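quick one before i forget lol
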Amino acid sequence: MDDDRPDVLLTGLLFYDLVLTGLGKPPTPGEEIWTRGMGCGPGGIANLAVAASRFGLRTSLATVFGDDFYGAHCREVLAAREGVDLALSRTADGWPTPVTVSLAYGHDRALVTHGQDPPFSQDVLMEDPPAARTALVHLEAEPREWLARAAASGTRIYADVGWDPTQRWPAALLDQLALCHAFLPNEAEATAYTRTDSAVAALGALAELVPVAVVTRGGAGAVAVDQLTGEYADVPALDTDVLDATGAGDVFGASFVAASLGGWPLAERLRFAVLTAGLSVREHGGALASPGWYGVDRWWRALTDPDLRRAYGFLADRLPRDPGPAPAHAPVTPPARQHCLPHVPL
């Protein structure tokens, strides 16, 4: 019998992203800097939604859109262009869509955001979460009630976590891993929450708490362990030119889920996630930087390095026969005319 559940269930805050690249130096007060590049489009939770959808996963997103131009534009991009199911999402009257300006410089960026707390919480949007094959979630200090309901319904939870601005790194947050199938923090987050001093040591601590633990290490790649299969993997990063790293972690997470749903060995899952994250930083960041199957297929066909051909040889059997059309990347400015979808009633 066919499984008609969503492949990926998502909820979180959506932003309209404006990304500026090509800064010759960091800006200083009182100074105007002209940049060589700019891109705009949906960001925040949309990064995961687009990345998952571009790998052919049926993606259901519960978020809040403002009743403004930015909200309408993001809704149109996600639903009409990227095929994301927005049945669980809402449009809020009088609430402005959050906007983030990202200043990309070198391998990092600075973010400036305007926004207000959304009028609908995650628990309201996901009061009765549909059964799904997986959910990609962002753990917070205060547990979300819907998460336990989703896990109880058989949804496999893949979780990440963010930087703690208080620098307290409460170990109690890791109690939520009892609901999770996989946990994918970066090295700074993993070592802080586990009180360890290296990615490998943090991985060992996390492996005691969750079946699949992954620690990303930026330019050093990623390490992972799967307790269910007994596999361990350590994968280097790709050597690539970085235009903008915004959303690379989201692309990593979505592609790891896609490979996991395909039943790939851990080393292949990890290499695939590292590859797609590396490809995403070549474009203006946010949701539309995700390479999808098309981008991975194009990279593989153009690859001549013999070492990389061997390391990624599994792609010859994993890539779909039809990788689909070239994905749309972030435009400099949104189109002048929008043919927006009707709002979902409150």
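fyi The chain has a mean pLDDT of 92.
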